[in-house]
C-alpha cells in the first residue's frame, strides 16, 4: 500500500499516528506536495488532496476519515472508533474535531494568499471564531477525556499541535486550559512524537 502524505498536513498526521499506533506494516509513505499536482496523486485521488491511501489492488481510499476507519476496522480490530451502535452524539464530537481541522487548514490557506490585500478579514475571523468556539465546547464537555484511547483523542492532539505549528497567534490555551493540560500529558504518546512536523 502507498500513503500520499505531507509532514505538515494534520489530516495526514492523524493517519500516520494510527498506522504507527496500530503497528500496521506494508504501507510506503510517499511525501507529496498536493499543490504540485503530481500524476500519481491525481490518478489516485482526482481531488488532488492528501492523505490518500492506495491499496495493493490499485484502488484508493480518501478522505482521512475513510482511511482511518479502514485502518481501524480492517487492520486494527476496531478499537479506536469503538462500538458505534448509534452513538450519534459521539459521531458528532468526531465531526466537531474534523470541522475544526477544516477551519484550521482554511485559515492557513487564507493567510497564504499571495497578496495581503486579497486576504479576507471576514473569513479569517470566521475560521478563528469557529476554532475558539469548538475549543470551548471541547473544554466544557470534557470531550478530550474518554475512558480509553479513541480516534477523537488522536485527531484532537493532531489538531492542537497543528494550531501550535501554524496558528500560534490564536493563543488557544487561554480559552481551553483543561484541554491544554490534557495535551501536555498526551503529547508524549509515542506515535504522536514520531510524526511531529519540522
Ligand atoms: N477532507 C479531507 C481534507 C484533506 C485536505 O484538504 N488536505 C490538504 C492538505 S492539509 C490538501 O491536500 N490540500 C490540497 C488542495 O486542497 O488542493 C481529508 O479529511 O482528508
UniProtKB/TrEMBL annotation:
InterPro entries: Glutathione-S-Trfase_C_sf, Glutathione_S-Trfase_N, GST_Omega/HSP26, Thioredoxin-like_sf. Coiled coil: none annotated. Pfam families: GST_C_2 (PF13410), GST_N_2 (PF13409). Gene3D superfamilies: 1.20.1050.10, Glutaredoxin. It comes from the Bacteria. Residues 1-79 form the GST N-terminal domain. SUPFAM superfamilies: GST C-terminal domain-like, Thioredoxin-like. This is Glutathione S-transferase N-terminal domain-containing protein. It comes from Shewanella eurypsychrophilus. The lineage of its organism: Bacteria, Pseudomonadati, Pseudomonadota, Gammaproteobacteria, Alteromonadales.
Amino acid at each position: 500500500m502507498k500513503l500520499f502524505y505531507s509532514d505538515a498536513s494534520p489530516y495526514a498526521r492523524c493517519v500516520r499516528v494510527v498506522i504507527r499506533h496500530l503497528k500496521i506494516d506494508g504501507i510506503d509513505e510517499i511525501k507529496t506536495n498536493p499543490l504540485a499536482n503530481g500524476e500519481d496523486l491525481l490518478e489516485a485521488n482526482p481531488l488532488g488532496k492528501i492523505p490518500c491511501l492506495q491499496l495493493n489492488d490499485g484502488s484508493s481510499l480518501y478522505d482521512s476519515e475513510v482511511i482511518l476507519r479502514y485502518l481501524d476496522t480492517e487492520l486494527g480490530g476496531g478499537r479506536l472508533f469503538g462500538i458505534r451502535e448509534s452513538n450519534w452524539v459521539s459521531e458528532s464530537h468526531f465531526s466537531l474535531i474534523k470541522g475544526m481541522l477544516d477551519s484550521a487548514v482554511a485559515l492557513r490557506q487564507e493567510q497564504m494568499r499571495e497578496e495581503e490585500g486579497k486576504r479576507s478579514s471576514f473569513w479569517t475571523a470566521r475560521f478563528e471564531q469557529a476554532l475558539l468556539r469548538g475549543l470551548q465546547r471541547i473544554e466544557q464537555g470534557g470531550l478530550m477525556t474518554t475512558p480509553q484511547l479513541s480516534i477523537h483523542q488522536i485527531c484532537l492532539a493532531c489538531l492542537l499541535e497543528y494550531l501550535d505549528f501554524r496558528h500560534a497567534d490564536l493563543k488557544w490555551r487561554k480559552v481551553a486550559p483543561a484541554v491544554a493540560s490534557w495535551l501536555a500529558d498526551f503529547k508524549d504518546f509515542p506515535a504522536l512524537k514520531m510524526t511531529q512536523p519540522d
